[in-house]
Each structure stands twice: as structure tokens, then as C-alpha cells.
Amino acid sequence: MVQLESDSNWLKRGRQRLAVAEVLRRPMTPSEIWRAAQVIAPRIQLRDVWLILRQMEQHHLLTCFNPKELTAKVYFWTDSRVTFLSERDWRNYAYVIRAKIRRYVLLQLADRGDQAASHIRYWVNQRHPVSLNAVIRALRDLHLRKLVRVSGEGEKRRQKVYQLTAAGRRIAEFLAHRTVSPQSLLNSPPSLRA
Question: Is the pTM of this model over 0.85?
């Protein structure tokens, strides 16, 4: 009980620490935490978030789901008792969110089902300008991670049709709960809050 009070007081002593604690309502990367915390503490920098996360880990308040990754580490509260994904899935999740194209391709496959690379490019291009080569490269990378698989041939000669694997579907479902706007994260419905 005394440890809980001292941790609570430690969090409340700093505006930036409090901002990080308030926005951490789901597993997030430091960049996501930083963008969301800027709404509460406008002067917070990414390096401040890294320091605060390390301090919170030392106080055993946070845990990193993928500590071996160099970038896109995912943090969440230690006492959450909720295991969202396995350790391998967290590594794949970090790999997917490091690149917009991989993330958009995975979400398009989740939304629209089996598609060829040209169709995926058409739908992704409406949100984010992208070349067909970038989509093919993203599909190849996701295929190597066993997040997508080739499910057949398309209408054109030698055209591959891709679909999500079970691991890809788990990551896509988790990505669907991510928010774009930091303000929408603060106003998220209780069902998405951890």
C-alpha cells in the first residue's frame, strides 16, 4: 500500500509524467505516447517520453512487451493482467507499425478480404499516395513474417491474390483499435480503455 502511494505521488509530481500516465490506455509505442501526451503537455519532447518510460519501468509501473526490439517498443501497465498478443505477435506488431505502407496494406486486407497487389494499391492510394512497387515490397515483407499468404491467382496472368493469416488477422484487429487523433484517444469509449 505504501509503495502504491509513493508511486502515485511520484507520477503526480511531474506534469509530463502525469500526461504520459493519462494517455497510456492501451499498449502504445513511445511515438504514439508522445503524440497523445502533447495534447495535455504541449512542451513534451520525444526524448522526455523515453526518459519517463525508463523511469516508470524502474518503478515497475510499466512493462515492455518487446524489449529486444530496437525501435517501436510497445509499453503498457504492469498490473494490467491482460495479455493481448503473444511475444512473437508483439514483435510482428512492432514491425508492422514501423512502416505506414505495411500498416495500410495489412488493414486493407483486413477490411476488404483477398486482393491482388494492384487492388490494394488502389485502396491505399486513396488515403496515402503509394507506388505499386512499395505495395509489392510490403506484401513480400508481410509474407516473410507469415502475416499474409498467397491464396490464389488473380484475373491477370501471374497475378497473386493475398489474404491474411491468423497471426495477421490478430494484428489487424489490434491495429483497428488504434486511434489517429490524440484527442480521440483521450475520449475513447470505455470498452477500448484498459
Answer: no
